[in-house]
Amino acid sequence: MTAYDAQTALDAIRHRQEQTFNAYMRHASSRPYLIVSALGLFAVCSSFDLPNPWKTAAVLAGNALVLGGLFVHQRRAPVRRKPAASEVLFYGVVGVLLLVLFWTVAIASYFLGLPARHTLAAAVTALAVVAASYAMRPFVEARVRGNGHS
Length: 150
Known about the structure:
This protein is mostly helical. It has one domain (3-146). The protein has helices at residues 3-28, 31-46, 52-75, 85-111, 117-135, 137-146. The protein is elongated, with a radius of gyration of 20 Å.
């Protein structure tokens, strides 16, 4: 094997790794899944304002949207990889921050005397999820690339 052959093989491997990484990131940040998860989050969080039979229906519908969307999203993934512990921790922190945002808006709207405070908080949180997913995409790409992609 010549030096040229070895370099060509390494370049081909790097090219395939880059293609794999791009396919993973493109699928991970797909717009349909983002919309379904935001709608499911809104349905579950806004259900606090509904009377009992509708509350249960909204929670079930929201959870069905989120879990069904997650199932379909994972089944259609062209590339699968195990997330690193730092990625799982990052997503956990983001989840806690979203809970804090939801309850902060709900409590603030209660003190302001606004009607349907949980629905308002759910809308703000769902919009924050959509905005944050676009704003944090470069950070997530750097985090995934830094942990290695396989």
